[in-house]
Design brief:
- It is built from 8 helices and 24 strands.
- By secondary structure, the protein is α+β, with helices and mostly antiparallel strands.
- It has 3 domains: about 160 residues, Immunoglobulin-like; about 120 residues, Immunoglobulins (Immunoglobulin-like, Sandwich); about 150 residues, no CATH class.
- The strands form 5 sheets. Strands 1, 2, 14, 16, 17, 19 and 20 form a 7-stranded mixed β-sheet that branches. Strands 5, 6, 7, 9 and 10 form a 5-stranded antiparallel β-sheet that branches.
- Strand 5 and strand 6 form a beta hairpin.
- The protein starts with a strand and ends in an 8-residue tail after the last helix.
């Protein structure tokens, strides 16, 4: 079904798609689905949501609501030999043409049991999926997840559009994304609910439908997987120079610069709803778009799905290499390069253990500091993830080193993080500047720290607190 392009594209092919992309920001931008972020809030259930409209073989129109709840975000109580969490999931499907009229409102209760007390720290997810019969149209789907042991609630929303299978205008449904880890036996494709996809899901499947009711006219579709130029570097240390506006770290992601990873062409001769699947394997880490469009120049048929492939277990950290990378903020460049040059996982783990223990001395305190540090890294991934891992962002760096700010102050394109009630203290207030306004053309919050050479001693002292364990006594 797909054809790998390994050399160059014919001139005509390139000109055609250059024209298409040039108009994408205006004509097609509203038809690009970017999935959802983590919307992480400590103490509340972590919920990830995706919805898809489709047409079955009998031309019945339906909505699939897929969600996942992070086990470790729930409160557990002892129930005999088990640790038990109880959640309520309330799903509302609202017709956007008549918002006051709910098409459906359904309620579900789930009991999540585990024999392992470490379930409270697990980043694995409980998945739920429901399918509903609805009429063609545009819908708002609202999902409310309540942790019944804490009474904390999380609300997530998504939108779906279901084409009329009898309509005379061809339509493309939402592109559903599923993934699986092919190294696991008997594994199956499962829904991906976020923009960020861990690279352990080494096989990705994209499913959508095309409604084509023009019996006397064939429909030719082009599908391309694009990889965008984007910043993947670790944040510069706070005492370094600021980024220049021409630097990719300042721009973040450049939708005008991309490589075509794969391309295919599909001719639809039959009328009705046609199901199309694409599967990609072993994609490199980076930011991608799968786009589908009609080959006819006067046809505005278009749909796309953006996604990002992150580290293996993202947003968690499990492998030695995942645990090693964020130590950049605590090490000198020479020590860090030496560590990252280690190829063996066992040797790398030993190096990391020696780093912590040699600096802290006490193994019990070292374990406590290590736990605190990587909790910060995972939390940064959930709070500040955008086109790159959250811990690599400027806000992620400050959050890991100094913890959550006491309070924040927002301006039009700036944000001040304060760790003191004295806003004039230069060592306890950090100013971030937004490089671009978040919009449908640039969907990320991209804040860069206003770096200063005066931060040199502050940075050294703070990283020293982590290395020697004094971070447990005082933070800033």
């Amino acid at each position: 079904m797909q054809k790998k392009l390994t050399i160059t594209y014919r001139l005509l092919f390139c000109i055609f798609f250059t024209f298409i992309i040039a108009g994408c920001s205006n004509k097609y931008i509203d038809r690009i689905d970017r999935g959802q972020g983590y919307s992480y809030e400590p103490g509340f259930p972590e919920v990830r949501l995706s919805t898809t409209g489709y047409v079955d073989l009998q031309d019945n129109t339906k909505i699939i609501v897929s969600g996942s709840i992070v086990y470790g975000s729930l409160i557990y109580k002892k129930a005999g030999d088990l640790y038990r969490a109880k959640v309520n999931v309330d799903i509302e499907i609202i017709n956007r043409a008549d918002p006051d009229q709910k098409a459906l409102s359904l309620d579900y209760n789930y009991s999540l049991d585990s024999e392992n007390e470490n379930i409270i720290n697990s980043q694995e997810v409980y998945r739920f999926e429901q399918e509903y019969d609805v009429s063609p149209g545009d819908y708002l789907i609202r999902v409310v997840v309540t942790d019944l042991n804490s009474e904390k609630q999380t609300v997530r929303e998504a939108q779906s559009s279901i084409p009329d299978p009898q309509g005379k205008i061809s339509k493309i449904t939402e592109i559903r994304v599923l993934g699986k880890n092919s190294s696991q036996q008997k594994t199956t494709f499962k829904p991906v609910n976020t923009y960020d996809i861990p690279s352990k899901l080494d096989s990705l499947q994209f499913i959508f439908q095309v409604t084509n009711n023009k019996e006397d006219e064939q429909l030719t579709l082009q599908a391309r997987l694009l990889r965008f130029e984007s910043d993947t570097t670790i944040a510069r240390k706070m005492n370094y120079n600021n980024y220049s506006p021409s630097h990719i770290s300042y721009k973040g992601i450049d939708y005008g610069e991309y490589k075509v990873v794969q391309s295919s062409r599909r001719v639809l001769n039959q009328s009705g709803s046609v199901l199309i699947e694409f599967t990609f394997t072993d994609l490199k880490r980076g930011n991608y778009r799968l786009e589908v469009l009609s080959e006819k120049e006067d046809d505005d048929l278009y749909k796309a799905r953006d996604f990002s492939v992150k580290s293996k277990n993202y947003p968690a950290l499990k492998t030695p290499r995942e645990l090693a990378r964020p130590l950049y903020y605590l090490m000198g460049s020479g020590t860090y390069k030496k560590m990252m040059s280690i190829k063996s996982s066992d040797s790398l783990k030993s190096f990391i253990d020696r780093f912590w223990l040699a600096n802290i001395g006490n193994s019990a305190r070292a374990r406590e500091v290590i736990s605190k540090y990587y909790q910060r890294v995972e939390s940064a991934n959930k709070q500040f993830s955008n086109y790159k891992e959250g811990w690599k962002t400027d806000m992620g760096m400050i959050y890991i080193l100094f913890g959550p700010p006491w309070y924040t102050t927002s301006f039009s394109d700036e944000m001040l993080w304060s760790y003191s009630y004295n806003r004039m203290d230069p060592e306890k207030n950090f100013l971030f500047k937004r490089t671009k306004l978040k919009s449908k053309f640039f969907p990320f919050l991209n804040y860069l720290l206003d770096r200063k050479i005066e931060y040199n001693s502050l940075y050294y002292n703070q990283s020293s607190k982590w290395r020697n364990g004094l971070i447990l006594r005082d933070n800033l």
